[in-house]
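S1.2 Input.
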Amino acid sequence: MNNLTKMKILKPAHEVFEAFVDPAKIGNFWFSSSSERWEQGKTVILKYDEYAAEGAIQILDIEADKKIVFRWGDGEEGNVVTMTLTEMDHGGTIIEVNEEGFNGHDENLLSQMLGNKEGWVYMLTCLKGYLEFGVNELRAGLVLG
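S1.3 Output.
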């Protein structure tokens, strides 16, 4: 089972890519902080200060300005997220986020998929606000629970 979310960001792919991998930028739209620059083979700690939460992601594959693949969740059982960046000829970038690994037999699958989609749409909206308009205070506005 997978969940696919897409959004157009009116910035070059390089700027979109750097917003994720640069620890100085990610706090402007997604997590509060990232322990280090995202590179293939690294395990990166992401923190949400507002929710007193943190988690590790394992960077599985990365191609500058084109693709980021990571695993998060419970070790080898966690979900795999693939972010694909496609720069458009007439300007802007399509970012596609595909999360795979949901248990199709889980009785809570529908609520998990809906919550997951909500989270990706919210993150991408915050990314758009940050990169296109310089708004960096949307990130912590999502109410959990």
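S1.4 Remarks. The helical segments are 13-21, 23-26, 109-133.
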